[in-house]
Amino acid sequence: MDWSALPEPLRVRLAELGADALGEMAKVDVPQHLRPVAKFAPTKRARLGGAQVVAGLRDSANFRTAVVEWLRKNRPSTLEVTSPDPVTAAAAAVLTGDDVALHYVELVTRRVGDATLRAERDAAVVRAERMESELERLRAERTQFDGATERVRADAEIELERLRKRLREQGVKLREAKDAAAAASAEVGKIQERTADEVKRLSAERDRERERAETERGKAQRAIADAEVARQSAREARQADEVRLALLVDTLDGAVTGLRRELALGEGTGPRPADLVRGASASQGAVGRVEDPAALDRLLALPAVHLVVDGYNVTKTGYPELSLSDQRDRLVHQLAVLAARTGAEVTLVFDGAGVVAVPAAAPRGVRVLFSDPGVLADDVIRALVTAEPEGRPVVVVTSDRAVADSVRRRGAHPVPSAVLLARLGRV
Prior knowledge:
Blueprint: H1 8-22, H2 35-38, H3 42-59, H4 61-74, H5 86-96, H6 101-215, H7 220-263, H8 293-300, E1 306-310, H9 311-318, H10 324-342, E2 345-350, E3 366-370, H11 377-387, E4 394-397, H12 401-409, E5 413-415, H13 417-424
Parallel strand pairs: 1-2, 1-4, 2-3, 4-5
């Protein structure tokens, strides 16, 4: 019989029977390796030396015979192969070498397997019920979220319609202003035409007066005086027209400027020659640096803000006298308090080079990352910023100019390490 294939309940029963007999057995019948076990207390013998007892029953026929004799004398019921308990019957058959031993071993093995399957089935049922409850909870949460989304969408549509209406009203006003400007330009043109005609007329009259002066030298002085009066009148008329024209232009300019201010328009909406030059691109704008803790607090108050911290850049600025391990521990615990108070997502990045043992866990609310071999923490920070969806506020704490410039171009808010340290000093 293959004793190594005996099911665990049968091995336990054999160990118990052998241990009970071992305590009252003659020393000569006890194998050498079981004599230390025989000295154990009866309650500990099977528990601590069970494996040795079963090995002795397997390897020593004399020991097995002595155990059978002791059981016949003291516990004969344990040797009944017809026992209703399969484990008891199997143990008796194995000890006595009965031919049905293999049958009972297979029966016990099958029952152990069935019990294991039932336990696994019951555990699977419990897990399924728990997962079903969790699914129901998630469905309820999704229903609530869908309702909130619908309300937000409805509010957004109302606001959009209100803005469209206001835009239509402003468009009407703009068209009216353009029409007024066009009418004023036409009026200016007419005034200029009248002024030019008047100048031509007066010039022609002046020429006639000169001719008349040449033919009538006797009336020269009066003609000259009349011509001078005519010239003065022309100048006064021209000056009056120019004053009226300048006043009209100033009035139109003021009206257009006020309308632009009301509509928040720029000085010019069309392209300029400089906008069409090839070979250069206009600056796209950049996020400004944060220079004080109050500005950092405003950023951390933004919804779903992600705070990314260049670990050693901050610790070597704030407390370089500590060891690297103490620097990491101090910054991690300070950021955990900050995350708990602000609700921001916090990711702390350290260079992995030279770290003997990476901590297995970080305080709640702080994600601690160590760069892989051959990878700089600066590149990890840039990858974190790039991975975020467009529109999500990201704050990067570092005094490294190159890192700050690169993350600013990606839309993140760079913050000097000293500003974060000042903010953590208030935690």
